[in-house]
Design brief:
Largest sheet: 3 strands, antiparallel
Number of helices: 17
Structural class: mainly alpha
Strand order of the largest sheet: 2-1-5
Number of strands: 5
InterPro entries: TPR-like_helical_dom_sf
Radius of gyration: 32 Å
Shape: globular
Helix content: 55-70%
Length: about 400
C-alpha cells in the first residue's frame, strides 16, 4: 500500500475535512490542484471553505506544550516573596541586579522548567531575557543561608546554567556537592558527574584562576579528610594550583562569582570599621577589589601551606597580608596575627590583627584573645582590680567566641 505522502507532489500531503450540504462529513485527499470529493450519491462538489488540519509538526508542538504545562517541575509557590529578594539582593547580590529582576527571573523559570524536554533551556535568554549571569546569581541567592524549600529551585537553576556551560555555576556546584560524603547519592548523581567533567576541563585549560584556586582548596580538604595534616605531596599540589591561579589572573582576570558560602557569617560594617586603621599606622597595602573571585582564598591557602615550611615564614606573612590588608578577609587577619606572634617583640601588632578577626566573629580569634587575657590576669604584681579586669575580658571573649561558633554552625 502506497503511503499518503506519496500522493502529493514533493512528498507533501494535505488532509482536509469537507462538509457537504446533503450528507455526513466526508474525508478526502487533495492531489495536485483540485479537491475531488464524492458524496453518498456520487455527485461531485467543491467547497471553498474547507478546513485545513494542522500539520503533524504543529500537532506535535501543541501536544508538547500541553504536556509541558502539566509537567512543570516548580510552581509560583516555590519562589520566595519580593520581600525576600529586597533583603538579600542589596546584602549579597551584585550591584547591577535588582530584587525585582531576580524575583521575575525565578518566577519565569518556574513557568518554563518542565520534565518533558529540555528545549525550554535555550529559550531563557532568547525569548525571556534571562541571561546566565542573572540565572546564576538568582540561584545563588535562593541557596544562601539555611537550607530550605528554595534550595531545590536554586539547585535546579544552577544545574541548568551548568548544562548551558556557564563556568561560575560549574564552580559553585563543585564546591557545594563536593562537601557530601564520598560514595553518597549526591556524588553518584548525574549532576555531580556533569559538574566534575566540566570542572576538570576548566582546570586543564590552566586559564581560569577561580577553577585553579578551587582545585587547590579541594586538594587541601581531601588531605584533611584522611587525616594527613603533613601530607607534603598534597601541600605541593595545592600550592602549585594557587601559584598557577595567580599566574593565570595576571594574564587575564576573572569577573564572575560563585555562590556565597552559607557556612560563613555575613560581613557587617563592624569588620570594615575595625580594619580601617592598621596597627601602628604602617600599612602599605591598599584596600582593593579582588582580581578574581577567589583571590583572597588563594592567598590564604598559600599562606597556610607556606607557614608550615621551615623557610616559609616571610612568604606566608606576605600572602596573609594581601588577603587581610588588601582584600579584607577576616580569616586572613587571624592567620596574620598568629604568624606575627611567633616573632618576639611583635605581640602588640599580632594582637591587634587578632582583634580585627575577632570583631568579625571569628571564633578562633576570640578564644585566643580570651586565653591571652586569662594569662595576663595571672601575672605577678597586678592589683585585684586589674586582675578582675583581665578575667572579665577573658570571660567576655570566651562568650563571644562561643556565640560565633554557634552562629557559624547554625548556617
Amino acid at each position: 500500500m502506497r503511503s499518503l505522502s506519496a500522493l502529493a507532489p514533493g512528498g507533501r500531503r494535505l488532509l482536509r475535512f469537507v462538509i457537504f450540504n446533503d450528507g455526513p462529513p466526508s474525508l478526502a485527499f487533495q492531489t495536485g490542484g483540485s479537491l475531488a470529493c464524492h458524496n453518498s450519491q456520487g455527485s461531485q462538489q467543491r467547497r471553498q471553505y474547507a478546513y485545513q488540519m494542522p500539520s503533524p509538526t504543529v500537532r506535535r508542538q501543541g501536544r508538547l506544550e500541553r504536556q509541558g504545562k502539566s509537567s512543570l517541575i516548580f510552581s509560583d509557590d516555590d519562589v520566595p516573596p519580593v520581600e525576600f529578594w529586597k533583603q538579600r539582593v542589596p546584602a549579597m547580590g551584585p550591584g547591577d541586579l535588582t530584587a525585582e529582576t531576580c524575583f521575575n527571573a525565578a518566577t519565569q523559570y518556574c513557568a518554563l522548567a518542565t520534565r518533558v524536554s529540555s528545549t525550554w533551556k535555550g529559550k531563557l535568554q532568547r525569548d525571556h531575557n534571562i541571561d546566565l549571569y542573572t540565572l546564576h546569581y538568582t540561584a545563588s541567592l535562593l541557596m544562601s543561608g539555611t537550607p530550605g524549600p528554595s534550595w531545590q529551585l536554586g539547585l535546579h537553576m544552577l544545574g541548568t546554567a551548568l548544562d548551558l556551560d556557564y563556568a561560575p555555576s560549574t564552580l559553585t556546584l563543585i564546591r557545594l556537592l563536593s562537601r557530601s560524603k564520598s560514595g553518597s547519592d549526591v556524588q553518584s548523581s548525574k549532576l555531580f558527574r556533569d559538574a566534575e567533567r566540566r570542572f576538570s576541563a576548566l582546570v586543564k585549560t590552566g586559564k581560569d584562576p577561580d577553577a585553579l584556586t578551587l582545585q587547590g582548596l579541594l586538594t587541601l580538604r581531601r588531605k584533611e579528610a584522611v587525616g594527613g595534616d603533613h601530607n607534603k605531596r598534597a601541600d605541593a599540589a595545592a600550592l602549585s594550583c594557587f601559584d598557577r591561579a595567580i599566574e593565570a589572573a595576571a594574564k587575564s582576570g576573572s569577573t564572575y562569582a560563585p555562590l556565597p558560602d552559607p557556612n560563613t557569617t555575613p560581613q557587617g560594617d563592624i569588620r570594615k570599621d575595625a580594619a580601617s586603621a592598621p596597627p601602628g599606622g604602617e600599612m602599605q597595602h591598599t584596600k582593593r577589589e579582588p582580581k578574581w573571585t577567589c583571590e583572597a582564598a588563594c592567598h590564604l591557602g598559600r599562606g597556610r601551606i607556606l607557614s608550615t615550611k621551615q623557610d616559609g615564614h616571610e612568604a606566608a606573612e606576605a600572602a596573609f597580608k594581601i588577603a587581610a590588608l588588601e582584600l579584607d578577609m577576616p580569616e586572613a587577619y587571624l592567620e596574620l596575627g598568629k604568624i606575627i606572634l611567633r616573632t618576639a617583640g611583635r605581640e602588640k601588632e599580632g594582637n591587634e590583627y587578632l582583634l580585627k578577626a575577632a570583631v568579625s566573629g571569628n571564633q578562633e580569634a576570640c578564644l585566643i584573645l580570651a586565653e591571652a587575657e586569662l594569662q595576663r590576669s595571672n601575672e605577678e604584681g597586678l592589683s585585684k582590680t586589674q586582675k578582675k579586669h583581665h578575667q572579665r575580658l577573658a570571660a567576655e571573649w570566651s562568650d563571644v567566641g562561643g556565640d560565633a561558633g554557634e552562629a557559624v554552625g547554625g548556617n
